Amino acid sequence: MDNKPKKTKYYTFMIVPHDAQGRPVNLKLPVSWLYAAAGLALFSVILVGSSFVYSTLLSRKLVNYSDTLSRSQQQEVVINSFSDKTVKVGRAIEELVQKDNELRKLLGLKGWQSKVKLSTDRISAEVKAGKVSTVFEEAHDKLAERKQSLEELKQWVAEVRSRFASTPSTWPFYGRLVSYFGYRSYPWRGVHTGIDIQSYRGAPVRSTAAGVVSFIGWRNGYGKTVEVNHGYGVATLYAHNSGYAVKVGQRVRKGQVICYVGTTGWSTGPHVHYEVRRYDRPINPIAFLDMNILSASRFWR
Ligand SMILES: [Zn+2]
């Protein structure tokens, strides 16, 4: 075995000048120095690399931070505008409630007694206190309440419409009014229980309201007669006809042809004798010839 003491190894670096005058420089270095230099180079590479990575990460974090900051500012703006809008919604609800009450008053209905208190002042106060969800809860209740009120109005309108459909409100046909309701001396002395409207023989006679045909046939003096029951104690009668267009028990619409003008019974020429009866008592039909929903509603009271 070779048991000589370890000799230090050397490397010589020679730097050779390119011109002839220059002398080459020899650099004799121990091998350990070389290792140290290589280690130092590696360490500095690692240092530069890691500091680069770290700075990149840090700047990215900074970007995130500024993002978060601006987002929270944006959120604050959103919350502020949200509060404004909540107040606006509250104001709109208040207006709706007011209009609803006005409408009810106009229609002669009782005002709606609200159980939910929600004023614009209260909304502002609650929003400032951060109770936006409470405000929305109350707004929802208030709207639900108004929905009920509207439902009631809708029912009322439906009832009025059906009531109006059943109220005599038109002419049986347009013709010359030749005899009025009440006492008369011509052609027969006595109380005239309806009005006479002149036309030609065979002219269509229309029901002046929706109802059910309650009588068809000959009546002494009236000749061929049609009676329509409109409900609510109201009926109409059409006399002196030449023929019929409906049957007893048939449901008729307002304006539906029910018979034809003639001169049957005590009559001096083609005309319709038109009666309006309330609880079987003849009343003056004049007011019922041209009626709208408003004048009709006066009649119901
Ligand atoms: Zn008559």
Description:
The chain folds into two domains: 80-165, no CATH class; 176-300, Glucose Permease (Domain IIA). Helix content is 42%, strand content 25%. The protein contains four helices and 14 strands. Strands 3, 6, 7, 8, 9, 10, 11, 12, 13 and 14 form a ten-stranded antiparallel sheet that branches. A two-stranded antiparallel sheet has the order 1-2. It has a two-stranded antiparallel ribbon with strand order 4-5. Strand 9 (223-231) and strand 10 form a beta hairpin. Helix 1 (31-106) packs antiparallel against helix 2 (120-128) and helix 1 runs parallel beside helix 3. It starts with 9 loop residues before the first strand and ends with a helix. It binds zinc ion. Residues 179, 192, 194, 196, 273 line the site of zinc ion (ZN).
Q: Ranges with pLDDT <50 over ≥5 residues?
A: none
For the largest beta-sheet, the strand count, sense and barrel status come to: 10 strands, antiparallel
Overall mean pLDDT stands at 87
How many strand units? 14
